[in-house]
């Protein structure tokens, strides 16, 4: 690591007490994010990626959630050890978050300017008319046309993409060091999704923020991230620099995910299915959680849980057959030629 | 060598669907024409408000078209009385985006699949049971699942039930409305493969509606792109992907996230600006001109007609070179 970590997470574990028993949603997860860097956490429903984001900000109600871990160090402070009052000064101020559904995250009966001003009042020293001026500036910064006119509109006056822009304006109002974006474009149309991603990435550069992007979409991750962390059933199975991961995925789950996705320009009669379904977190197999669906698994995989091993380039992979997989040529689908 | 002329499984001609709403009249579908032959998949791609759901509803007769013709295996289904319509209804089925919302939570899988058979005159109980069993087998559900309730299935399995139900009455066409959008990637692959297998075995035609061009590009034989109520481009899958002519199609392809960080990073992309205009007040002329990077003065005045650019490639753009207005537009709309 050349850059010092802004966020350093070590052995984060989140358990939930449920009627079905205690289940582990996030299992000893470690990662870090350097200043200005983008880390993407990718995985399917229930893999623990959103719970991880919520746990970092301590947004999970306890009970039923139980958060433990060695530390979640942010700017040198362990967030797990902070009082709730001290945590409130971190939340929305040093770390901001945007969600998939901006409509449910915005207050429907207050103007967007008011909601930005609320954040400015809480996290900056601005007061008086300067607050409204800054709110309009922020709306302009997130490329909302005619921000003067739109500032006093209510959320329902905006389209889905414009609402997400408003959410981003609120999030960056306090000039946070880390932005957590949980599926920020999933509910949006294709062209609007690309606009919002591009906006987030350009604001990140402008403000020098770090970005933690949570996504199910490998395409979005490939377009945006510096490093990628792949989760399955609450555990990290692979973490690699983005170029390495997509050029040469190592974990069988990562490979299977990539091959299951339709890829324009690649002609395949059938997609490679991943057989079966994600195991219940309340009833994980004793060994590798992916073993029951894995084409490479043998009886050892069913018994032994693999540990993460370094693979060079700062990457790591948790697979008992890593040596064999790393040695073989990636079975990439044959390119038909992609249009420029 | 000329193939015998085949009756299209579905033919849609000059279809208009308008609604009267509190905010004034809304033309959700504004003169759409296409045909799908048996065993073919037509992909329909568009963003919110483009009219793709209204088009789907009109085809499965959940809304009444304002004007235009809808023919299923050559029979016009518009303007029929209730009885005639009921006789043709089994020919057009639908698979929905949210399988949980489309299945009665209190009905067991067997009942869900048996109901359409019962309603359409399959009288013998044994015959119905046998048909249910073969439907379940066709979509890869184990026979013992017959007594399960929808919540006892995974999302992918529920969508299999939705597909089995759509197949129950040997339809000519299945309208698939975002059938994999609510599913995780690993389950998407299972359902897409299943749809393809079913089509090979039954020669059913699909109208496959999606906002996701990469899914459509995988499954469709031809692809239609819709923008604010109109088809702006229609072409064989490969042509559309390799040589798109309409600026909106190009914008969609450019915006598509790719799994290739070496060549495709969002920071380096040129993304079409602006929001989708309100369908209540669509722009005059070409409806895309307000966002189009190459629009000229004429585009704001004249609406371009869907014209033939050769080899079954239709495009509605004044600036698409090579496209000539088809003297007989209906001929161009026949499947190749």
TrEMBL record, chain A:
Location of the ABC transporter domain: 7-258
Keyword ATP-binding: yes
Annotated localization: Cell inner membrane
Record keywords: ATP-binding, Cell membrane, Membrane, Nucleotide-binding, Transport
GO MF, one example: ATP binding
Primary localization: membrane
Cross-referenced SMART domains: AAA
CDD domains per the UniProt record, alphabetical: ABC_NikE_OppD_transporters
Membrane topology: Peripheral membrane protein
NCBIfam families membership: oligo_HPY
Membership in a protein family: Belongs to the ABC transporter superfamily.
Full protein name: Peptide/nickel transport system ATP-binding protein
Natural source organism: Xanthobacter agilis
From TrEMBL, chain B:
Membrane topology classification: Peripheral membrane protein
Single GO MF annotation: ATP binding
Protein name, as recorded: Peptide/nickel transport system ATP-binding protein
Entry superkingdom: Bacteria
PANTHER family listed in its UniProt record: D,D-DIPEPTIDE TRANSPORT ATP-BINDING PROTEIN DDPF-RELATED, TRANSPORT ATP-BINDING PROTEIN
Pfam (any one): ABC_tran
Chief localisation class: membrane
Keywords, comma-separated and alphabetical: ATP-binding, Nucleotide-binding, Transport
Family the UniProt entry places it in: Belongs to the ABC transporter superfamily.
Boundaries of every ABC transporter domain copy: 10-253
Localization of this protein: Cell inner membrane
Signal peptide: none
InterPro entries: AAA+_ATPase (IPR003593), ABC_transp_ATP-bind (IPR050319), ABC_transporter-like_ATP-bd (IPR003439), ABC_transporter-like_CS (IPR017871), Oligopep_ABC_C (IPR013563), P-loop_NTPase (IPR027417)
